[in-house]
Amino acid sequence: MFLRKLIAVGAFALMAGVANANEGPLVTTEWLEENLGSADIAVIEVSVNPGVYERGHIPGAVNFAWHTDLVDPVRRDIATREDLQARLQAAGVSDDTTIILYGDTNNWFAAWGAWVFDVYGLEDVKLLDGGRVAWEAEGRPLDSAVPAPAAGTVTLAEANNDLRAFLPEVVAASDSGSHAIVDIRSANEYSGTIIAPEGFQETAIRAGHVTGAVNVPWSSAVAEDGRFKSPDELRAIYAAAGVDGSKPVITYCRIGERSSHTWFALSRILGYDVQNYDGSWTEYGNSVGVPVTNPAGTVWTGL
Amino acid sequence: MVTASFAARRNLWVAAGLALLIVVFLVLIPARDSLNRPLPLSMLLGVAFGALLQRSRFCFWCNYNDFLTDRDPRGLLSILTALAGGTIAYAAVLHGWVPDPFAGRLPPDAFIGPIGLPLVLGATCFGLGMGLTGSCISAHLYRLGEGSVASIPVLVFVLVGFVLGFLAWNPLYLLFGSAGPVIWLPAIFGHGGALALALAGFAALAALLIRFGRFPAPEAPAQPVQPVQAIFQHRWPGVTAGVIVALIAIIAYFRVAPLGVTAEVGSIARTYAAGQGWLPQRLIGLDTLRGCIAVVKETLASRNGVFVLGLVLGAAVAAQIAGQFKPVLPRAVSLPRLAVGGMLLGFGAMIALGCTVGVLLSGTMSGALSGWVFGLFCLLGGWAGGRLRRAIP
């Protein structure tokens, strides 16, 4: 009797273990390699650097260009529902497909893709934990063939703008203290010592941060191997900065993409109520009359 | 008195030393760049390209000048072979990378430049510089390996020319509203159509060269040429060289980046001049483009830097084995010509966003109309430069 019970518990634990591999917001490299080719998943790469996908990608993955597939090329906005739906259908995504996103630079823009998909109501969206960095470091296979999937039938919901913070909401949150505001840029950008990192074209004419924002650089959420830290570690890191989920959260960065990485950690992994401010510092630092804190006192002189 | 066999043995020892140096660099350089591209492969491709340039005298100006002076078409046919072979290979790769060429996307990294006055001006200046200095930038680099001391002042003035190009870029861009439209032929004709059109163009040019060229009468060798001599001492046949250039070009594009030699030179010039505060902080419309374009350097071990290093060392090894390392000092009276020519090469390469390797070879292979336009105006400039050269020391 005891033996039978033990076997039953063991089998249950094993099954739960297998199932858990595909539960939650992240998938592991092992799980993805085992499930490549499954009709239920669509693997999408969103990398920052050109040529990365073409020279070798996870077999069967399709390529989304963040400059054109995830944004509206004219308005400063995320892609329209029609454009994104057509792009996803061409990528073979249907309503019951699990979308797995990954990319270079620690999944920055893959996480941004996850946020855009979330805005349009796609629920079954996961990130490959560690992205390209982990996949390549483990010597897993890459392919240069571009797949031509059969068209999918996914239909997107109208954009849920509750997941986005717009400038007036950020100003209101700063004034009232109703939200925890997380600035994920570098400490030097947050303090106003520099306006933007060296070499970046998109910048602002005021330095500093949104008054009331705390600084937790995006990299704080990443372990040395490129994967997200454990939920407990993440919880402790953000709690130390006063972000414990007791208040809704707004994340921002410079142009609104890297902050999606922190949005993912806080919202999808920790389950907090989080909005991403996609206007970010390039909008805020150029806006007239908004509350700014600039501890470094850097004065913009045109350079 | 140095005997021939002693000289040959010494050359082999020097070649072995240089080959060892290549191995040392291959071990020392980082395995990957920031985009995870293999740097040792990039350097090896440079070694292969340098050795090939040296062995086959694959030099744009020399080949063109052979035709201008003796109507010998073999060199230009070698370039056409490289272009045709490379275009076929690029088409195969791009068909996979950009399955729908009409979608409005360009293949990543390819040298597909804008077509406008900057390209025309740059290509013409580059041609003038080739004619005046007797080589394009890649040939000056491989000739360093042959002991061409004159290439050193030329390459220094190439850097000066690059700085002048950076200074001229913003006014030129604003004067014309942009650098011009970016035209990728497969986006108009499809992959197959663009390939057919390009091959027809190369065939027509080859037919013209054969029709109007004069092939020199073959000299019967005094004794049969051994394979070792054919490879290491004699000049490689043009068609063979062209095929190997195409092969190197497609491996480079497929695994690392398109062939190009000026990105590193341009980056050094830009980094230095920017450090001196000479340059505008931003080059309009340029910093957003990718490809043969000089960016401020962050690291010495760039993919193009190790490629150029490999090119010089590969040419040096080939030249030593062939006994063709012959240091030649330029005459003092030639220095002004070399300086002006070098500046024109650098200025032209900057304004045209690349040179005979990047824009002409890699660009044309990838289906860029800018490659053809560059080729045309580079030939015109080269013709004028060659005539000028005869008139001055």
From TrEMBL, chain A:
Signal peptide range in chain numbering: 1-21
Pfam families the UniProt entry points to: Rhodanese
Chain ranges of the Rhodanese domain: 37-144, 175-293
Residue ranges of the TM segments: none
Record's keyword annotation contains ATP-binding: no
Domain of life assignment: Bacteria
Protein keywords: Repeat, Signal, Transferase
GO molecular-function term, one example from the UniProt record: thiosulfate-cyanide sulfurtransferase activity
Protein name: Sulfurtransferase
TrEMBL record, chain B:
Protein name per its UniProtKB record: Putative membrane protein
UniProt topology in membrane: Multi-pass membrane protein
Claim: Cell inner membrane is one of the keywords in the record: yes
Keyword field: Cell inner membrane, Cell membrane, Membrane, Transmembrane, Transmembrane helix, Transport
GO cellular component, one term: plasma membrane
Domain of life per record: Bacteria
Localization per Swiss-Prot or TrEMBL: Cell inner membrane
Keyword Cell inner membrane attached: yes
Pfam families: Sulf_transp
Regions that span the bilayer: 12-31, 37-54, 75-97, 117-142, 154-176, 182-210, 236-254, 305-323, 335-361, 367-386
Family note: Belongs to the TsuA/YedE (TC 9.B.102) family.
